User: Fold these one by one.
Assistant:
Number 1:
Amino acid sequence: MATISLRKANTRLPPEVNRVLYVRNLPFNISSEEMYDIFGKYGAIRQIRIGTNKDTRGTAFVVYEDIYDAKTAVDHLSGFNVANRYLIVLYYQQAKMAKKSDTKKKEEEITRLQEKYGISTSKDK
């Protein structure tokens, strides 16, 4: 298999490669069994978390036991068609996710301060 040859060659993986995958553009009604069927073909899975609330529907996190299995899954499943939707499979990057939440918090803080001190922005005029 391809994963065995990767391990034997002692291939150096890029720094963004890790065992945790972030999957977007999933059908909202996909079950965890279907996720295990799709992603389990590429190696042992430790955990799958499917988004259920309004903000996270259509997304999931898939955690593999082995980093090479995760790499193989990304290589094969990016663009894979599930229920007429093409999957977007990325390596989870905690720094990028933290930046998004920090930006949102900062925007909320700015809005709150503007309301508190009665400052209007050029958009409001």
Number 2:
Amino acid sequence: MRGLPFRATEGDVAKFFSPLNPLRVHIDMAPNGKPTGEADVEFRSHDDAVAAMSKDKNHMQHRYIELFLNSTASEAVEMSRGGGGYYSSSGGVGGSRSSGLRGAY
């Protein structure tokens, strides 16, 4: 997610995606400890992450929110074979932000 109000909380982000229920919300912080206006949101499945994209360009408070899908159907197949995992509308598959970087250097 990009464009979050600087005072947005994890609860505000979860409410934004309602009726979907994010598994995890991570609001990014700058080195000075202030929010960057970006967040990673993880969902139970690729289909939920795709459904969450319907909220792209919707508003939270006075700001419109940009969403970026970082999950693919092929990842969903791989995860079903390997067990476990979750999908993100912005941060990739898994629990690490670095997993969303896949070759984008």
